[in-house]
Amino acid sequence: MSTIAHSLRDYREPTRTQAVIHSFGLPSTEEPQDDIPAVLSLSNPVPANAGAAEAVDSAEQEDQVYAGRLILTNAFLCFSSLDRRSCRLTLPLYCVRRVERLNAQRTGVFALAVVVWHGMKVIIQLNALRPQCETFCAQLRDNLRAQLGSMKTLKSFVAGCYSEVALQELASEKGKEKTAAVEDAGNTEEKAGEGAEAVTPTPPPPYHAGLGARFKFPGDPRKLREKSKMKLWRDYLRIHGRNLTLVRYPQFLRLVQVGLPNRLRGEIWELTSGSIYMRFAHQGEYEALLKSNEGKTSTSTEEIEKDLNRSLPEYAGYQDPQGIETLRRVLTAYSWKNPELGYCQAMNIVVAAILIYTSEEQCFWLLDMLCDRLLPGYYTQSMSGTILDQKVFEHLVQRSLPMIHDHFVQTDIQLSVASLPWFLSLYINSMPMVFAFRIVDCFMAMGPKVLFQVGLAILKINGEELLSGRITDDGAFINMIKNYFRTLGDSAHPESKNPRHRQITNFQELLVVAFREFGVVTDETIASERRRFRQEIVEEIELFAKRSAVRNLKDLGRFSKEQAGLIYDQMVEAIYRTRHAPAIASDESGKATTPTTTQDYKEMRIDLPTFRYFLAEVATWARDEFVISNGFQERIERKIPDSRTNNNDDIIPRLFQRWDREKRGSLSLQDIVTGLDEIMFARDDVLASIEWFFKLHSNGRDSLTKDEVLRLSESLLFMFRNENSDGHLGAVSQLISASFQNS
């Protein structure tokens, strides 16, 4: 097993600052500097030749005024309405062209007009005392100046966003003619659906686009109403900003729930998740990562190769070498960026799906955000996040659908056999892709609660059949769910006399039930339930990891399985303590050590600094003990000797090197069990112990040089340094004298 135990133990609830950063999808380097009550509205000038429709839009936007809080960070200006749902804005300061003070002559009114690079004006009225407003504006001015360097790369960055192309098409007829070739390249899905037998790849468009632009998008574009969706989104983007400057009004969420247009889907995904800000801040890093690790291999890259041809093989893009190579590059790059996580189960399915709508670089940063924030612990060897959420989901079923839960208990049906793949693949591997991507749209915009809401809705809609008496085992349950997913495109009310009711599909009904009946399942609900079950899940996973590690030992030596389990516990504890003591976890030169990309994270191994902690727990000579007293009580505190100030602890590195038989620079559980077996079961044989100790310093030879005798004596002095008497000093002195006389 990998080093999963300490990663689970290391989990800490997000601080208030981190919660703010995560809620707006900001990079982890950001820190809130000031926040203030405010009122936000938009003001887009209407051209003189504007039609009646645009004039109406202008009148409507004046009414869209929301009160909330304005938060200033290093590089962002963020706004959230009081209900935290109606209006949200995450505005990078490098997108701001100028800031104007409004109503400067009026007392009691402190308003700002923030003009972004494409001309949209955001009106912000600060509702605080004048000194507080002045302080906020001064900080904003300083932060804007600090972003001047980033403003230089903005133009080239937004040129790759499809929203820019869409609005250029809307701007003039000439623009439409010039971009006709781009439209044809990106809109080939209008000509054929998913079932085409032969697909001829088209040249890539000039904006960031996924494999769908070359190999067609899943589904029939006419049934998906691509043109009408795109028209609605163009209207929204024209008024409410685009890409980096988009303001999320209530209409935004409604448009997402209806389904995103194929060509715009990738951009909205990275915008709502926050990965677009990471991509801007790390431009060129993806290609540099691939280039610097070109030709290298690892356990992760080997596993990636095995799964490439099993990643959505039904999609035309992954029947082509170009699509497979694209998938390989993204998965490989992420395994190098995050070597401790590397590559894990189901990651290939999710990445393959995302690549249909995003470019490689977009997908790379979206995957990073997915693993780090949206679904932490899902794509790890332990799958701790998935297992935890399965526990949460089962509890929500028990609370919301008690009759169905009781039926599962009575028939011994394991809910997780169906629900775990739903969560792990974001429903992509369970539903037809056109419907699964609609759920992913909502997931990116609304967060992980969507997975729970949809899961509960699936069970509720199929509740009658579940309780009919025909579903009595796991197999019948899975078949019932599969049959339901196959009918998601069918009418939910085929026998209704009302033609509008007959047009409602099973999938539309699923979303209505999910968001209306289970809207009570909020982000706070999920967070609370996760806190409730986290410790229980951690203990279960650690116990499973321990049993697996002991079971996989090739040679227990003379230890029992219980004793090997105790050794495993000490290894885990040493890893955990080392991670939280970076000042001590240093190499022999005194420099702090950090994991290297050559380390195999799929197996739990410990390096030399961690080995010092391990020895300190199992051997009294490898630690120092101090009595700490506060006047009322005393306690003994253990501390490992600092290798930077103690020059006589050569025995610990020697022991480490002797046990590292494969010369990998780290020790596995098997290495430690074998090494301890060699020492601990030789206690009754004094001569054997002496022989082992001498060979430890002679590198296996039958004799010692004078230098090796001195090092051996230093090791003895180190081991007996805490003895109360001085008897060992004379013994060591006699050993040196006798050795030199006989040499």
Structural key phrases:
743 residues; Rab_GAP_TBC_domain; globular; Rab-GAP-TBC_dom; 54% helix; TBC-domain-containing protein; single chain; Cyclin A, domain 1; Helicase, Ruva Protein, domain 3; eight-stranded antiparallel sheet; small GTPase binding; PH-domain like; 37 helices; alpha+beta; 4 domains
Describe the structure.
Residues 259-447 form the Rab-GAP TBC domain. This protein has 37 helices and twelve strands. The protein is an alpha+beta fold and 743 residues long. The strands form three sheets. An eight-stranded antiparallel beta sheet has the order 5-6-7-1-2-3-4-8. A two-stranded antiparallel sheet has the order 9-12. The longest helix has 29 residues, at 523-551. The radius of gyration is 32 Å and the shape is globular.
Topology (elements, then pairings):
Blueprint: H1 4-9, H2 16-23, E1 34-43, H3 52-63, E2 66-72, E3 76-81, E4 88-92, E5 96-102, E6 111-116, E7 121-126, H4 130-146, H5 148-151, H6 154-158, H7 162-171, H8 173-178, H9 180-186, H10 212-215, H11 221-224, H12 226-240, E8 247-248, H13 250-258, H14 262-273, H15 275-281, H16 285-292, H17 299-307, H18 321-337, H19 347-354, H20 360-374, H21 384-400, H22 402-411, H23 416-424, H24 433-446, H25 449-461, H26 463-466, H27 474-486, H28 499-503, H29 506-517, H30 523-551, H31 561-579, E9 605-606, H32 608-618, E10 624-629, E11 634-639, H33 651-659, E12 667-668, H34 669-680, H35 686-698, H36 706-719, H37 727-742
Antiparallel strand pairs: 1-2, 1-7, 2-3, 3-4, 4-8, 5-6, 6-7, 9-12, 10-11
Helix pairs in contact: 7-12, 12-13, 13-24, 14-20, 14-24, 15-20, 17-18, 18-20, 21-22, 21-23, 21-30, 24-25, 25-29, 30-31, 31-32, 35-36, 36-37
